[in-house]
Design a protein that fits this description.
The complex is a heterodimer of chains A (about 190) and B (about 575). Chain A has about 190 residues and is of the alpha/beta class. Helix content of chain A is about 40%, strand content about 25%. Chain A has a six-stranded mixed sheet with strand order 2-3-1-4-5-6, with helices on both faces. Chain B folds into four domains: about 220 residues, Rossmann fold (3-Layer(aba) Sandwich), CATH 3.40.50.970; about 100 residues, 3-Layer(aba) Sandwich (Rossmann fold), CATH 3.40.50.920; about 160 residues, Thiamin diphosphate (ThDP)-binding fold, Pyr/PP domains (Rossmann fold, 3-Layer(aba) Sandwich); about 55 residues, Alpha-Beta Plaits (2-Layer Sandwich). In chain B, the strands form six sheets. In chain B, strands 3-2-4-5-7-6-12 form a seven-stranded mixed sheet, sandwiched between helices. Classes of the chains: A alpha/beta (about 190), B alpha/beta (about 575).
Chain lengths: ~190, ~575
């Protein structure tokens, strides 16, 4: 059985770091893992995705349309943009957080209302996480990606692994404590 | 223990394990992480070269000097390096030499999607294509052996999907490969016509020997399944085949030049239907057909973009039932210059002055997009200056009064110097702006000759761009702050008037690496704001004017660069005092 996990967000939100920690954990659990990330021009404020596939034996590093078992959206509009990747019956984790792109900021386009309600209507398994709010309460909004990592680990049923060391290895020493708190908070979502 | 690595890191590891001691590159997505990773090893030499031609020449010298050498670049970089490459293919090597070509099907971050497997046939060098990170490491090691065994540079051809996908790799020990002896050998290394003629004979012999090797090499293998469908494929597309068509028999080619025609014939004879699946050009397919073997290929598959398991499933099995559709309209999220980016001031001004702008390759190519729209052309690295000369020669000196070439500092060093010499030599009169942000920003902030730091961040002699420009004979050179709009406009007006070439160096570090970052904050005085939206012309996410609002608003994205206050005619955007 292969599991497909898609992380989507906006350049600068830490989706790649989250994918890296999650992938390392999956390797420790003994899975074959492939993770695909595309860098380059899209990172300049653009929409970014990373794809993780794991199981006994994984071939393709990329996930087909409609085959993601789990989509973790770090931003609401990105959830909608990448929704066609989600498998029918799959789970959507969505950060209740908005980042306005330039066309929205200059009033050329509207940021849609009611995204959460619309998604909850259409999809059975939707988990809304206030990762930004949680991260802010903990003391650093930038840890919202680790809050989402916690939520991802829980949704994938991977709590049995000791994630603490992996998180410590991947964040700056002085931010280890706050990131571990963020992870715990995410697990509790 | 196995570890996840992107393909690029695995190639660096493979070169290290193979005992390579020299590596050269010019940064370019998706190849950059190969040599930046290699440089982290102890006891090796690595460099950012000024461009790919120099990188291959330095690598050739290192190989002639007896060292195993790696040289890496993006696909279009091989065009720059093609001259030394083609003739180094004649001389052959002393220490093994592997050249990595990182192609970009789908153009994630490139100006074209050329298929560099074509170089293998054209330059008569072997081409090897790994399909995951483990193979990237293993094939790199093997490529060094083949290079020395067959006395040839070897091309390792990868694509973005392999370069930037992490898959598991088992690390090995580094081989102790001694430096080979340096021997004078003019008939092999001095490519005078008489010597080159005899080397060409060796090249043809070598290609025959390699074709024989290909027949039994571990690089090429048949995986038998159902003989009703036989697939010939290479690179990461192999993974898509295994994913989408698990029932098919597969001939996986790890070496795509020269092809193992005997093996291909044998495979073809045992399968009912033969299909070649390769991204971009029909490199394998055409050669197979030329050998009289019938197969299907590009009549089923596109010449464009990246393939996927999904594409294969659609071609062979028809479309799957859909998943969730896009039911609502959502706003696009295009890439754009960062808040605080110094390039923004330049493109705002170029647009406002309605100038003709020949552009170049870098983050600043985004200056072509709305609302800045400050660029007319962008072809390849260094092309801005040459294109500007050509425009002037075609349309006359009056046209050049409105003509500006725009080029980044790293790109200028890469290939902007020779066209600037042409502008002086052949009496162009237009103006060149060098956008000097003190780094190679687009590819992730690599150093270059004008930053004064090497690939390992060690201090080195810093190239003085201003002195260089003066030395080639540009009579008018001035340095401006690209975020000081009046200064920039005045400089442009004065320099464009002259009947001589001018260079304006727009100097300010990239906002992402600027150590003297401003802490200035700005706000909009809603009394003074007339809602004219002029501030939106700078195309920055730091200032917003959303639907129901009557006035502009500064938001958290603002980097405090102070550009939009200069644009506001009502002085409504003010700095927070204190």
């Amino acid at each position: 059985m292969i599991k497909n996990v898609l992380l989507v967000g906006v350049g600068g939100q830490g989706t790649i770091l989250t994918s890296k920690i999650l992938s390392s954990g999956l390797v420790k659990l003994g899975y074959d893992v492939k993770m695909s990330e595309i860098h380059g021009m899209a990172q300049r404020g653009g929409s970014v995705t990373t794809q993780i596939r794991y199981g006994d034996k994984v071939y393709s590093p990329s996930i087909c349309t409609g085959e993601a078992d789990l989509v973790a959206a770090f931003e609401k509009v990105e959830a909608v943009r990448w929704l066609p990747q989600l498998k029918k019956g799959g789970t959507l984790i969505i950060n209740d957080y908005e980042i306005y792109s330039l066309p929205v900021l200059i009033g050329k386009e509207n940021y849609p209302d009611g995204i959460l309600e619309d998604l909850q209507d259409r999809i059975k398994e939707v988990k809304v996480v206030d990762a930004a709010g949680i991260a802010e309460r903990i003391g650093n909004i930038k840890t919202q990606n680790i809050v989402l990592l916690g939520a991802l680990v829980k949704a994938l049923g991977l709590e049995k692994l000791e994630w603490t060391e992996l998180i410590k290895e991947n964040v700056p020493a002085k931010l280890q404590g706050i990131n571990l708190k963020a992870f715990q908070a995410g697990l509790g979502c | 223990m196995k570890r996840l690595m992107i393909g690029n890191e695995a190639i660096a590891r493979g070169a290290y394990e193979a005992g390579a001691t020299v590596a050269t590159a010019y940064p370019g997505t998706p190849s950059t992480e190969i040599v930046s990773n290699f440089a982290r090893n102890e006891g090796v030499y690595a460099e950012w070269s000024p461009n790919e031609k120099v990188a291959v020449e330095v690598a050739a010298g290192a190989s002639i000097g007896g060292a195993r050498t790696l040289v890496a670049m993006k696909h279009v970089g091989v065009n720059v390096a093609a001259d030394p490459l083609y003739t180094f293919a004649y001389t052959g090597v002393t220490g093994g030499l592997v050249i990595v070509s990182a192609d970009d099907p789908g153009m994630h971050s490139s100006q074209n999607e050329q298929d560099n497997r074509g170089y293998g046939r054209f330059a008569k060098i072997p081409v090897i294509e790994p399909s995951d990170s483990q193979e990237a490491k293993d094939f790199t090691k093997l490529a060094f052996d083949l290079s020395e065994q067959f006395d040839t540079p070897v091309m390792l051809r990868i694509t973005t999907r392999l370069a930037h996908s992490q898959t598991l790799v088992e690390e090995g020990e580094r081989l102790a490969i001694p430096l080979k002896e340096y021997k004078k050998d003019a008939p092999k290394y001095v490519m005078l016509p008489a010597f080159a003629r005899s080397r060409h004979i060796e090249v043809e012999k070598r290609m025959q020997a390699l074709a024989e090797y290909a027949e039994t090499s571990e690089l090429n293998r048949i995986e038998w399944n159902d003989p009703d469908l036989g697939i010939i494929t290479s690179g990461v597309v192999y993974q898509y085949v295994k994913e989408a068509l698990p029932e098919a028999s597969v001939l996986k080619l790890g070496m795509t030049n020269p092809l193992p025609m005997g093996l291909i014939k044998e495979f073809a004879s045992k399968v009912k239907r033969l299909v070649v699946i390769e991204e971009l050009e029909p490199v394998i397919e055409e050669q197979i057909k030329a050998h009289g073997i019938s197969c299907e290929g590009k009549e089923l598959f596109t010449l464009l973009g990246e393939y996927s398991p999904e594409l294969l499933e659609t071609v062979f099995k028809g479309k799957k039932p859909g998943s969730y559709g896009l039911e609502s309209q959502i706003p696009p999220r295009p890439p754009l210059l960062c808040p605080g980016c110094p390039h923004r001031g330049v493109f705002y001004t170029l647009n406002k002055m309605k100038l003709i702008v020949t552009g170049d390759i870098g983050c600043y190519t985004l200056g072509a997009l709305s609302p800045l729209e400050g660029m007319d052309t962008c072809i390849c690295m260094g092309s801005s200056i040459g294109a500007s000369i050509g425009l002037e020669k075609a349309r006359g000196e009056k046209f050049a009064k409105r003509l500006v070439a725009v080029i980044g500092d790293s790109t200028f060093v890469h290939s902007g110097i020779t066209p600037l010499i042409d502008m002086v030599y052949n009496q162009g009169t237009s103006t060149v702006i060098i956008l000097d942000n003190d780094t190679t920003a687009m590819t992730g902030h690599q150093d270059h000759p004008a930053t004064g730091l090497t690939i390992t961040k060690a201090p080195t002699k810093k190239l003085d761009i201003e002195a260089l420009v003066k030395a080639v004979g540009i009579p008018n050179v001035r340095i401006v702050d690209p975020l000081n709009l009046p200064q920039l406009k005045e400089a442009l007006e004065e320099e464009l008037k002259r009947r001589e070439p001018s260079v304006i160096i727009a100097k300010r570090p990239c906002v992402l690496i600027n150590k003297q970052k401003t802490t200035d904050k700005y706000y909009v005085d809603s009394e003074l704001c007339k809602g004219c939206k002029l501030c939106l012309k700078v195309g920055c996410t730091g200032v917003s004017f959303m639907d129901q609002e009557k006035v502009a608003v500064m938001n958290d994205n603002c980097a405090g660069c102070g550009l939009c206050p200069q644009v506001c005619t009502f002085d409504a955007i003010k700095r927070v005092e204190g």
